[in-house]
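Subject: Sanity check before I submit

Could someone independently write out the structure tokens for this chain? I want to compare against mine line by line before I put it in a report. The sequence has 199 residues.
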Amino acid sequence: MSEYNSYEELFKPSNSALIVWDVQNMLVQGIFNKEQFMNSLNNLINSARSLNIPIFYTKITPLPERFESPVRKFLLSRWGRKASWGNDPNLYELAIKPEKNEIVINKNTASIFVGTNFELMIRNAGITTLVFTGIATEIGVESSARDAFNLGFLPVIAEDAVSSSDKESHERSLANMKKMLIVMKSEEIISYWEKTKGL
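---
Independent answer below. Compare away.
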């Protein structure tokens, strides 16, 4: 892995990937800042596409009932939540349509690294910087970003392109992540990508 001395080295498009975490119709409908979130997210996606930065979309994909975690089902029931959104397939669909060269990762946990081939793919491609966007900030985004850091990657949180149905939890999560990870606005990330393209 490369040594980094500046943000310019950190944000080279050739080293970067964009993660769009669980931007599915059901979750988008419930966030507190939908218009601003979708605008910032689309700006990042358009920039990544123009610079040939890989984009990975994650998608909550429930396991068959028999093979679902009993512990997860128990805890969700204690919290008054269901393990799935029911039988309407549209609720699970992504609110942004991936292009054909973009990757959709079907996953069953709150970390992009657990139960998927994501780590293998990005290591094979020499990707070291992961820009995180999506829903929910305090659950899958933070879990994945912390796992990325612990595995030796460089996580960056797009502050205005992450969200939650719970504004207070979202803000508390961002405050926690700012203590050890890079958290910045989407326009700053795009600016660094543009400055370092071709490097």
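---
OP: Matches mine. For the report I'm noting this point. The chain has a mean pLDDT of 91.
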